[in-house]
Amino acid sequence: MTDPKTNRPPRQPRREVHGVLLLDKPLGLSSNDALVRAKRMLRALKAGHTGTLDPLATGLLPLCFGEATKFSQDLLEADKTYEAAVRLGIRTATGDAEGEVIAERAVTCGVDALRAAIARFTGEIEQVPPMHSALKKDGKPLYEYARAGQTVERAARRVTIHEIALLDCGLPQAPAFTMRVTCSKGTYIRTLAEDIGEALGCGAHLTGLRRTAVGDLTLAGAVTLEQIDAHEDAARPAMLAPVDALLQRCAPVTLDEAATGRFLQGQRIAQRDLPAGTVPAEGELARVYGGEPQRLLGVARMREGALRPERLVRL
């Protein structure tokens, strides 16, 4: 059946979809474009991503749907893990393989020197954001200045590199290596690659980048856009992880029927009304369950002897 005005199949209505899609983003697609495609395939009413992943990067892009969008900010704050391929001896205008070559130097270092350089960039470090980034200056993304041939002053920012593991190294025969980086939010891996190259005296640029983890979420169970498209429409919502997949670091608390009703009205729950052995520590965030059948009610924080609702979930 087609729409007589457009001669196309009628557009299917949007629906309530709740959960987290662990998307394995392909090369060349922006995070926003990936979100738009996934939202359309799922016919979801509400969706949002949890921080951008460069078009030239692949890998884990968690997408939040429905009630899960209430917790997307938590993933923005989470640590990230990447696998990065780096080419030594060549600097580019963008810090990656897409940019024009702006300098070439001989690579005379060995594996030991590379390991020593990597060690210098673990822990708290300062990074100057690259010009080819979405960071804004006077309301305008830096990459727009860069495309216009302008360079603007950028303040160094403090980030934390928790670990850099050398996965593969071609030195001394080939001027390339691969590393796994676990870091805080706001870390630019292309800048890290360039800085390691400068520490070695030869320069470097990023030739490949894949994100493998965001907080506790990993590529295990991640799906591609092609896999979503291959499923029947009715089966697609089942490809989402539940909303509480975002809350696994929070202590679980299950309320009885009376406390569930009060909690859903935004009322605090006294410690004496909580199940024995499940009382969170003072200031601790908890994921709260209740109802029949049992479901996620929201998150709450223990303060002054009571569990106080912070965000409620309507499932």
First-to-last CA distance:
33 Å
What is the count of DSSP helices, taking H or I runs of 4+ residues? Answer: 7
Any idea what the radius of gyration is?
23 Å
Helix content: 10-25%
Q: What structural category arises from helix and sheet content?
A: alpha+beta
Average pLDDT works out at: 91
The parts where pLDDT drops under 50 for at least 5 residues are none
H/E order of the elements? EHEEHEEEHEEEHEEHEEHEHEEEE
How many DSSP E strands? 18
Largest sheet: 9 strands, mixed
Shape category: globular
User: What portion of residues belong to β-strands?
Assistant: 25-35%
Written description of the protein model:
The protein has 315 residues and is an alpha+beta fold. It contains seven helices and 18 strands. Strands 1, 2, 3, 4, 7, 10, 11, 12 and 13 form a nine-stranded mixed sheet that branches. The protein has a five-stranded mixed sheet with strand order 14-16-17-18-15, with helices on one face. A two-stranded antiparallel ribbon has the order 5-6. The two termini are 33 Å apart. The mean pLDDT is 91.
How do the strands and helices of this protein lay out in sequence?
Elements: E1 19-25, H1 31-42, E2 47-49, E3 57-65, H2 72-77, E4 80-88, E5 90-92, E6 101-104, H3 111-120, E7 123-127, E8 136-137, E9 140-141, H4 142-147, E10 157-169, E11 176-183, H5 189-199, E12 204-214, E13 217-218, H6 225-230, E14 251-254, H7 257-264, E15 269-270, E16 285-290, E17 295-303, E18 306-312
Parallel strand pairs: 3-12, 14-16
Antiparallel strand pairs: 1-3, 2-3, 4-11, 4-12, 5-6, 7-10, 8-9, 10-11, 12-13, 15-18, 16-17, 17-18
